[in-house]
Amino acid sequence: MENQNSNPETNSVGPPSALTYLDPHYWDERFSSEEHYEWFKDYSHFQHLIKSNIKTSSSVLELGCGNSQLCEELYKDGIVDITCIDLSSVAVEKMQSRLLSKGYKEIKVMQANMLDLPFDSESFDVVIEKGTMDVLFVDAGDPWNPRPETVSKVMATLDGVHRVLKPDGIFISITFGQPHFRRPLFKDPKFTWSMEYNTFGDGFHYFFYILRKGKRCNEEKEDEKCNDPSISLYQDELEGEDYLFRTRIDDDED
């Protein structure tokens, strides 16, 4: 999955519950009529972070491209070796058509499940996701102690990402997920990556995590790099459907 309310091509009306996002049929129906939607701000808000972390020569895998323009923005910034995947065949077909119509023939788009990535080990310099993993958490229950089923899906995704990254590759996760909830998952002992993050947004935080494979070393120094910001997100500041994720977090914390 991948909010750009002002875009004339965006005609989304959010589902009644965030749990609807777990239904693959929902996405097929949505993508059939919706041309473009951006989750968690558009590219301009975190472009500086992309440029400081991704080389133009990098091979990039995008998880859950949906109908986002993320891959197009990366392409415009000179990153042309891009592979996009999505679980929805409708999203894949429409993305392929859109990219070809714009002349972005180098970008590859294919149907695949991020829980079972169909790529060889050490295939990509960068794996990036923007709001895609957040879907896995909509039925997590207590965010401090998520359900085993949720943890299993998240770890399957992270296992696959770690496997397909090259030895010095990086995983970028753009999300609502606060560090105190993401850290136990990202920092599972089986992974060799370090973890750091930046924030962006006006008056509240979205998180831009950077996990560098093979760089896990001094945990204490790494943790000292960032202090977890307080959770200060207000529904009237959130764009489009982002509030559904925010509402879910608020409900779970009560």
For this entry, give a set of tags.
single chain, 254 residues, 31% helix, transferase
Q: What does the model show?
A:
With 254 residues, the protein is an alpha/beta fold. The protein is 31% helix and 19% strand. Strands 3-2-1-4-5-7-6 form a 7-stranded mixed beta sheet, with helices on both faces. Helix 1 runs parallel beside helix 4. The protein is globular and about 45 Å long. The N terminus and C terminus are likely disordered. GO terms for molecular function: methyltransferase activity. Belongs to the methyltransferase superfamily. This is EEF1A lysine methyltransferase 4. It catalyses: N(6),N(6)-dimethyl-L-lysyl-[protein] + S-adenosyl-L-methionine = N(6),N(6),N(6)-trimethyl-L-lysyl-[protein] + S-adenosyl-L-homocysteine + H(+). InterPro entries: Lys/N-term_MeTrsfase_sf, Methyltranfer_dom, SAM-dependent_MTases_sf.
Give the total of beta strands.
Answer: 7
Give the uncertain stretches in residue-range form: 1-11, 220-239, 243-254
Mean pLDDT: 83
For the largest beta-sheet, the strand count, sense and barrel status come to: 7 strands, mixed
Proportion of strand residues: 15-25%
Task: Kindly report the spatial arrangement of strands forming the biggest sheet.
Answer: 3-2-1-4-5-7-6
Quaternary structure state of the chains depicted: single chain
Helix content: 25-40%
Rg over C-alpha atoms, rounded to the nearest angstrom: 17 Å
Total of helices: 8
Order of helices and strands: HHEHEHEEHEHEEHH
Any idea what the shape is? globular
The assigned structural class equals: alpha/beta
Question: What is the straight-line distance between the termini?
Answer: 27 Å
Protein name: EEF1A lysine methyltransferase 4
Function: Protein-lysine methyltransferase that efficiently catalyzes three successive methylations on 'Lys-36' in eukaryotic translation elongation factor 1 alpha (EEF1A1 or EEF1A2).
Domain Methyltransferase: 56-177
InterPro entries: Lys/N-term_MeTrsfase_sf, Methyltranfer_dom, SAM-dependent_MTases_sf
